[in-house]
Amino acid sequence: MEDNKSEINVNNLIKSAKSIIIILPPDPGKDLVTAGISLHLALKQSGKISQIGCGSEVEVDDETNGIKNIPDSIGSRNLIISFDYREEDLDKVDYDVRDDGKFYLLVKPKTGAPVPDIGGVKYSYSGAQADLVITLGINSLEELGKIYADEKNFLDNATILNLNNTLRPAAFTGNLYHKNMGSFSELVIGLLKELKLKLNTSVSQNLLTNIYESSNNLSTGNLTADTFEAIAFLMRSGAHLPKTKVQTPRFSQAPFFEVPDVPSAPTEENIPLPEEENLSTNEAGTSIPADWNKPKIFRVGDNG
User: Fold this and answer.
1) How far apart are the C-alpha atoms of 67 and 206, rounded to whole Å?
2) Residue 290 CB neighbours (<10 A)
3) Residues in Cβ contact with 210 at an 8 Å cutoff, skipping those fewer than 6 apart
4) What gap in Å lies between CA 234 and CA 161, rounded to an integer?
5) What's the CA gap between 150 and 134, in Å, rounded?
6) Inter-axis angle of helices 30-45 and 184-195, to 10 degrees?
7) Per-chain mean pLDDT for the chain
8) Burial of 110: CB neighbours in 10 Å, binned 0-12, 13-18, 19+
9) Which of 199, 200, 196, 218 has its CA nearest to residue 209?
10) 8 Å CB contact between 54 and 25
11) SS3 of 89, please?
12) What is the Cβ-side half-sphere exposure of residue 276, based on CA atoms within 13 angstroms?
């Protein structure tokens, strides 16, 4: 009953949230990236305002359809403009909003000081805001790295749902979706099924391909009935089974039935002949052993 109540609570959290932020830990593997992106795209398709971030740069595989990169920040309220400049060279900073509706930022250097180099200007956002935060594969907020450092105040007070494919509880939130599954892709599929969210073909194919890759074409020992239910769900959503190579079995030893080697019969050259000195000739001229010509003595018991 407790698991059922937990699932109902998770469903209510997601369904009642209008805006959701999904956060991956730094340096995630392909399974985590695929699961996070698929959940993000499915939530967006359902009408949610969804955002995804990771505490490190993530190069998304070209085979993962639907997103080109994952930002290393989750803030969206404040625009930050940064460039290299020394405070002692600065005279003043001013801004102006003109009639054309454009915002102008003025950075005025002191007389004789260098002008800011526009080639080094970078833009970013801060000030995260969302009804719900979904984290994947962590047991503490500190594991989020840069994102937690940038948005500590927001995350310390946010409603957080933690997803993990192990049963180890997380202490930083009471909202958990933890199930012992072979991959995060399977975990996210189970969540999407409970939410009754529809997946497009692209997202379904991403997840199915990752399940095959993470399980070495369904040959690992951690496959469960949930794995095959997830595959069936994805195929009903438009995914196709990936092409796999058929491996020819190799035997490490000889077959069970084996014809033994039959030794060849000895040739005449291999038959030993008696030495000449041990032979004598009878009347017919035939050679006989020498000891045949000696008298034979037979002894019997004395009857007298």
Assistant:
1) 11
2) 12
3) 30, 31, 34, 35, 183, 185
4) 24
5) 17
6) 20
7) 83
8) exposed
9) 218
10) yes
11) helix
12) 0
Written as one letter, the residue type at 251 is: F
List all residues 6 or more positions away from 182 whose beta carbon is below 8 Å from its beta carbon.
Answer: 165, 214, 215, 220, 222, 223, 224, 227
At what angle are helices 201-214 and 30-45 packed, to 10 degrees? 160
pLDDT at 123: 79
The share of the chain scoring above pLDDT 90, in percent, equals: 43
pLDDT in tens, 184-226: 999 999 999 999 988 889 889 989 999 998 888 888 877 888 8
Token reading at 172 = 């930083």
Question: What domains lie within the chain, and their CATH numbers?
Answer: 2-75+127-198 (3.90.1640.10), 84-120 (no CATH)
Most distant CA pair in the chain: distance in Å? 160
Q: Residue 103 and residue 106: Cα distance in Å, rounded?
A: 10
Encoded tokens for 179: 């199930």
CA–CA dist 118, 96 (Å, integer) = 19
Which amino acid, residue 259?
V
Nearest of 147, 128, 158 to residue 49 by alpha carbon: 128
Beta-strand pair 58-59/69-70:
antiparallel
SS3 label, residue 8: helix
